[in-house]
């Protein structure tokens, strides 16, 4: 619940500073979290809140690429600003070397030897890298190491 408390305190700071774009993004975070809590009929912990935020960042990155391909840089800039606010609440991203080391360690600990064991490896990796690395890139690394 530490993450939600931090988001709420930043919301108050943004209100006092009259920073409307930042406040709007923080309110979007709170609305998405609240929606998940209502849908699941439970209070979300920090990992679940982080998963919601990872999904929000992914949606915005998709929107940015679509807006830029359509020549709507004004809308892409809004999405990029929201991504920067979202990333403030997420943990520091892992470097490529750290991700590679985690993938190799996960392969070793799970005893994986073929592509059929990829699910086991991803199950080991997901809690370690949630919100800190792109799961698509990690999947590609796992495939490359298993091939």
TrEMBL record:
UniProt xrefs under InterPro entries: Asn/Gln_tRNA_amidoTrase-B-like, GatB_Yqey_C_2, YqeY/Aim41, YqeY/Aim41_N
One Gene Ontology MF term: carbon-nitrogen ligase activity, with glutamine as amido-N-donor
Name listed for the protein in its UniProt record: Glutamyl-tRNA amidotransferase
Organism of origin: Enterovibrio nigricans DSM 22720
């Amino acid at each position: 619940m530490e993450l939600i408390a931090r988001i709420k305190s930043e919301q108050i700071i943004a209100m006092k500073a009259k920073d409307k774009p930042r406040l709007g993004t923080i309110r979007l975070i709170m609305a998405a979290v609240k929606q998940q809590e209502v849908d699941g009929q439970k209070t979300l912990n920090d990992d679940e809140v982080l998963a919601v935020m990872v999904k929000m960042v992914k949606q915005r990155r998709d929107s940015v690429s679509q807006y830029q391909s359509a020549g709507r840089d004004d809308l892409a800039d809004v999405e990029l600003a929201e991504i920067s606010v979202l990333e403030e609440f997420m943990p520091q991203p892992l470097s490529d070397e750290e991700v590679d080391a985690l993938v190799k360690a996960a392969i070793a600990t799970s005893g994986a030897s073929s592509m059929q064991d990829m699910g086991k490896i991803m199950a080991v990796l997901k809690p370690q890298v949630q919100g800190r690395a792109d799961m698509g890139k990690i999947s590609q690394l796992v495939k490359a190491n298993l091939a």
